[in-house]
């Protein structure tokens, strides 16, 4: 039965309300970042002065630089460790403790961040004297964020490995390639979109974290979310709106670039498969 005009209108209305609920606050935040008033929620005219004030805020810029460095190294380490974990979960046969290993890898997905932050702090305090790892600071935040994000990367890469046609790897090994060469020449290019997705996800999670970082942050390693949270507690400043608008633009640009790279790679892969089928046919 075809839906009536009223039913279609109701569906579109519900869809519009859902999108408005999700994205209208973000749009308003960006609009008010160009507000000339010192009050973040009172419009007094168009101005870009708060972007200039933000660029002159040394503490905010230092916190942003700390967060970007930690997020970059967190995403890189989590991608490597998460890929290794995904290979173990999907390519290794049953071994003693595999179920426990899988549960431990995915535990941060369901574990409250307060528990993760507290446990990592206690671990660093206990092992710091032996291993020489500081219990607070950028290294401690990096370790905590890798612990949090590696499970997300593992899940993303595992799903791609499970969908991958293993006959491609078997054909390469039949032609004389060893497992290491098969991984770098066959497996890695195919799962590259999943690796990029996992890297971006880990980067975003690290850049956004407040709870875990608050446990292990030191006086010289205040991250941007902690700085924003402490500033907002004293009242929302228009500089925070400007900073949020810049972050939204940066994340959107990164998402568009990542989508374009994955689209181009997938298009090239389909083209190569069509050429191979034509040659074999």
Automatic annotation (TrEMBL):
<dbReference type="GO" id="GO:0005886">
    <property type="term" value="C:plasma membrane"/>
</dbReference>
<keyword id="KW-1133">Transmembrane helix</keyword>
<dbReference type="InterPro" id="IPR051789">
    <property type="entry name" value="Bact_Polyamine_Transport"/>
</dbReference>
<comment type="similarity">
    <text>Belongs to the binding-protein-dependent transport system permease family. CysTW subfamily.</text>
</comment>
<dbReference type="InterPro" id="IPR035906">
    <property type="entry name" value="MetI-like_sf"/>
</dbReference>
<feature type="transmembrane region" description="Helical">
    <location>
        <begin position="240"/>
        <end position="263"/>
    </location>
</feature>
<feature type="transmembrane region" description="Helical">
    <location>
        <begin position="100"/>
        <end position="133"/>
    </location>
</feature>
<keyword id="KW-1003">Cell membrane</keyword>
<feature type="transmembrane region" description="Helical">
    <location>
        <begin position="70"/>
        <end position="88"/>
    </location>
</feature>
<dbReference type="Pfam" id="PF00528">
    <property type="entry name" value="BPD_transp_1"/>
</dbReference>
<feature type="domain" description="ABC transmembrane type-1">
    <location>
        <begin position="64"/>
        <end position="258"/>
    </location>
</feature>
<dbReference type="InterPro" id="IPR000515">
    <property type="entry name" value="MetI-like"/>
</dbReference>
<feature type="transmembrane region" description="Helical">
    <location>
        <begin position="139"/>
        <end position="161"/>
    </location>
</feature>
<feature type="transmembrane region" description="Helical">
    <location>
        <begin position="12"/>
        <end position="34"/>
    </location>
</feature>
<feature type="transmembrane region" description="Helical">
    <location>
        <begin position="182"/>
        <end position="202"/>
    </location>
</feature>
<dbReference type="InterPro" id="IPR002229">
    <property type="entry name" value="RhesusRHD"/>
</dbReference>
<keyword id="KW-0813">Transport</keyword>
<keyword id="KW-0812">Transmembrane</keyword>
<dbReference type="GO" id="GO:0055085">
    <property type="term" value="P:transmembrane transport"/>
</dbReference>
<protein>
    <submittedName>
        <fullName>Putrescine ABC transporter permease PotI</fullName>
    </submittedName>
</protein>
<keyword id="KW-0472">Membrane</keyword>
């Amino acid at each position: 039965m075809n839906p009536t005009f009223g039913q279609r209108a109701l569906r579109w209305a519900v869809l519009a309300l859902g999108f408005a609920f999700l994205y209208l606050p973000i749009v308003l935040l960006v609009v008010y970042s160009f507000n000339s008033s010192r009050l973040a929620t009172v419009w007094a005219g168009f101005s870009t002065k708060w972007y200039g004030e933000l660029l002159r805020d040394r503490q905010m810029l230092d916190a942003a630089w700390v967060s970007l460095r930690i997020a970059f190294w967190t995403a890189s380490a989590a991608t490597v460790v998460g890929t290794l974990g995904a290979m173990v979960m999907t390519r290794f046969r049953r071994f003693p403790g595999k179920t426990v290993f899988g549960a431990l890898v995915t535990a941060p997905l369901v574990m409250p961040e307060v528990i993760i932050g507290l446990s990592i702090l206690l671990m660093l305090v206990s092992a710091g004297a032996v291993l020489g790892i500081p219990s607070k600071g950028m290294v401690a935040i990096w370790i905590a964020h890798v612990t949090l994000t590696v499970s997300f990367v593992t899940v993303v890469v595992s799903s791609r490995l499970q969908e991958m046609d293993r006959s491609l790897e078997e054909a390469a090994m039949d032609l004389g390639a060893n497992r290491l060469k098969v991984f770098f020449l066959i497996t890695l290019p195919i799962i590259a979109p999943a690796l990029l997705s996992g890297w971006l996800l880990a980067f975003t999670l690290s850049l956004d974290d407040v709870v875990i970082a608050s446990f292990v942050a030191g006086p010289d390693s205040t991250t941007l979310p902690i700085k924003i949270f402490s500033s907002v507690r004293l009242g929302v400043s228009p500089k925070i709106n400007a900073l949020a608008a810049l972050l939204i633009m940066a994340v959107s640009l990164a998402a568009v670039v990542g989508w374009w790279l994955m689209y181009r790679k997938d298009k090239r892969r389909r083209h190569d498969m069509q050429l191979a089928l034509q040659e074999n046919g």
